[in-house]
Amino acid sequence: MNAPSVAPSGPLPVIPPLVAVAMRPLPLLPLQRVLSGFLQRICQRNPAIFDRLGEHSRARFGIRPTDLPFAFVVEAAPPHLTVVRDLPRDLDARISASLANLLALLEGKVDGDALMFSRELVIEGDIEAVLALRNAIDDAQLDLAAELSSLLGPLAGPARRALEAARDSLIGGSRRPFK
Amino acid sequence: MMELICPAGTPAALKSAIDAGAEAVYCGFNDETNARNFPGLNFSRDELRRGIALAHRSDAKVLVAINTFPRASRVELWQRAVDDAVSADADALILADIGLMDYTARRHPNQRLHVSVQAAAANPDAIAFYVETFGARRVVLPRVLSVPEIAEISREAACETEVFVFGGLCVMAEGRCSLSSYATGKSPNMQGVCSPASHVAYEQTPQGTTSRLGGFTINRFEPSEPAGYPTLCKGRFSTEQAKGLAERQPEQRVAFLDRGGLQNSSKFCEWPYALTRSGRPNFAAERAILSELRGMEVRPESIDRGRARLSVNLGARLLSLTRPEADRRRSGS
């Protein structure tokens, strides 16, 4: 039997506005390269995501962390991620929440329905595509620390421990055991 | 003996439920044969086969819901689902359509058959028909029934019974709702989706959020007000006679779960999360609920005369109480 989940209790932290302002001048390209590699890695290791996305596998999702000065445009097939200052108009769906909530959603640590109904998550556009994306991610049981650290070759071990510590302090201890 | 039956929308959910100790899981194929045909959910043939094998290695059962109503032009899709579920070694099929039950009973006479909630078998005579005609072994009772009604039916039922305890309440007779079809062209009975996400729109305005389904405004929420999914029969309504908010009627349900800290969630696989998040292992909350049921109208000793089993569906989950011989022995009856 799995250990009981240590799900986050109460609202997750947001990035302080001053920090967000300080991040504004940062160049986006390096971040885009890292995250693109990250996305491709996730898609390679979890091909069932495409099956679950079905007819929405070519949808373009705009993801805006509300506490960051930039946003992401994500496509699953083929895997493609762009970092932008402002989301373009020609998207299939837009998803907005704090960075911590978005990360918690990716790892299945919070219930997307509850987050949306509490207004901490805002979804616009093709709701069916977003629902398919959510269910595909749920089934993949992503571990962001493991996925990201696996890009770092010989540094994967220590990087994973550092990323897990950072994640745990931000969005809670263990992953949700049930989807 | 109590049997816990959990829903599983994905293979990961199936594994999680079994890891958590569920005695059985129910699920469906990723097509319109399943009344929870939501995007990104459900099982391919291969996933089901592997899921059943996994469950059986843990002595758990898998019940396969094929509980929408076949269309005249595509009956073979539903029949193939039955054949594939049987060949995948499903422990039971949950069916709603009498034509499909007939097909199953004839083609697969040894396959255990359960009557879906969608069949709306709401009285002992209807249940007896399914038992006598198709050999049904269990019936899932409509969600609109009250506890006393459940107790009454369970006393008379010719087979095992299950009831929803914690879930979205349909205001219509199960399996006979045309609201979603009217608004969107898709219905739970035919396509397996009520108020489908493909027809949902949320509009954000300074005044709050407006939710629409198929172009109909279902609800408006103030900025600080909790929002909801625009399920067609659960919005705010106004008529010439009255206006109000259609929602669940807790007093009509056996919904004790909120007291136990569980959330009301219609999400296909959310409940075990809520359960473990609250730190209660081994389904203690469900067992406590069952105790409450026993304390109410539904006492095991009053349910039937030897063969009965009371099953309680906890919304997205099922609790199944086999007639407790142990209880009987304890009470000395």
Write the layout of secondary structure elements.
The complex is a heterodimer of chains A (179) and B (333).
Chain A: H1 17-23, H2 29-45, H3 48-53, E1 60-65, E2 71-75, E3 80-84, E4 93-97, H4 99-106, H5 112-117, E5 122-125, H6 127-140, H7 144-149, H8 156-171
Parallel strand pairs in A: 1-4
Antiparallel strand pairs in A: 1-2, 2-3, 4-5
Chain B: E1 2-7, H1 11-19, E2 24-27, H2 45-57, E3 61-66, H3 75-87, E4 92-95, H4 98-107, E5 113-115, H5 124-134, E6 138-141, H6 147-156, E7 160-164, H7 179-184, E8 200-205, E9 208-213, E10 216-221, E11 236-238, E12 243-245, H8 271-277, H9 284-295, H10 300-303, E13 309-314, E14 317-322, H11 325-331
Parallel strand pairs in B: 1-2, 2-3, 3-4, 4-5, 5-6, 6-7, 7-13
Antiparallel strand pairs in B: 1-14, 8-9, 9-10, 11-12, 13-14
Helix pairs in contact in B: 1-2
Q: What is the level-2 CATH architecture name of the largest domain in chain B?
A: Alpha-Beta Barrel
Number of strands of chain B: 14
Bin the helical content of chain B: 25-40%
User: Which sheet architecture does the biggest sheet of chain A show?
Assistant: 5 strands, mixed
The number of distinct structural domains of chain B comes to 2
Q: Give the amount of beta strand of chain B, in percent.
A: 15-25%
- Do you know the CATH topology of the largest domain in chain B? TIM Barrel
Query: First CA to last CA of chain A: what distance?
Result: 15 Å
